[in-house]
Each structure stands twice: as structure tokens, then as C-alpha cells.
Amino acid sequence: MPFPDLSQKAMERFVAMLPSDLRLIVMADRKTSRTPGSAYLSAARTCSPQRVPELCRAHPEDVRLMGRARRLRILAWLAGQPDNRTLFVDLQKERDGGTDGRAGNGQSVPQLFRDDITAFSGAVAPRVAGAYLSRNVLAEAQRAAMEIAIERHVPEASASGPDNNPHDNSPSTGASPGALSAAAGDKR
Q1: Would residue 12 count as lying in a domain?
Q2: b/e map of 139-174 (b: 16 or more CB within 10 Å)?
Q3: Can you give the pTM of this predicted structure?
Q4: CA angle, residues 98, 122, 6, in degrees to nearest 5
Q5: 182 pLDDT above the threshold of 50
Q6: Which of 10, 163, 3, 21 has the alpha carbon at shortest distance from 154?
């Protein structure tokens, strides 16, 4: 898989495909972003994925000025590589006490990529959570929580029983599971 096209036209097509909430995050720095310099691009086109972290450190100002959208394209491309975990770790690792690969604003290349990952994760998190927490799942979780709450507050069947502890929250309160469901309003 060749290095991604980071040209202005390619980036406009990429951004246009994104949902609006993700587009806002990706384009947060659009007024200052630009296509990387020719030295970076020509090196990137012939660069193996394993050498991309070093290439980025060698051109920190290009990496900063390319903007979040282009850096996320690079991250997406690296994610599709066979040894992607090692590549991600290497890209985010500070070298030489964190003094190498600093852009004009003083941010290190690893910090730029970490900030991009954090911002993108924050934008994607509600979508991921929503996929797992459908209305049915939430309704079931609410029903189970009500049963547990009712179970913990049902008075004991007999004060003279073997478990005469008013602070006992165990299920042996003398109430049957059917009574708990009925108390919770379950019409099964």
C-alpha cells in the first residue's frame, strides 16, 4: 500500500467523506495547515512504513504545518501496515530526552501525533459507545438496576428467621425472584 496522497485535492476529498462532527475535529487547524514541503513528500513516497516515524522526526515543521487531517491520514495508513503496533509506539516515543523533532512552536512530533489521537478518540467515543448502548441494552440495564435496588430494600419475610440482620443485602431476603420482578413492574 503506497504512502497516502497528502495533496490539497486529496485532502479535500477525504474531509468531504467524513461526518460533520469528525470533520470539525479533523479540520480544527485548517487555516494554518498546508501541503508538506517537497523534501518531505518525495522522501515519504519512497519510504517504508517502518521509516515513517524517523522521517516525521526529520521534518518536524512539515509535520506540524501539514495539520491534523494529514497526520490522521498518515496514522490511518500506518494502522493498515502489518507491524502497526510497533509503528504507533515508535511514532509516539520521545527520543533524546524529547529534544529531537521539535517544530517551530516547540511541540515534538510525537506530541503532535498523541494530541491528534486524543482529539480523534474523543470525537469517535460517543459513536462507539452508542453502538454498544442501544435503547434495548439501556432498557435492560435499567431493569436490572431496578431489580437490584428493589432486592436490597425488600423487608425480610420474618424478623425471627435465621438471618436476622437488617443490614444484610444478600438475595436471601425471603422475596422470590418473581416477587422482585412484579415489584419492579415487570409484566412477564
Answers
A1: yes
A2: eeeeeeebbeebbeeeebeeeeeeeeeeeeeeeebe
A3: 0.66
A4: 65
A5: no
A6: 163
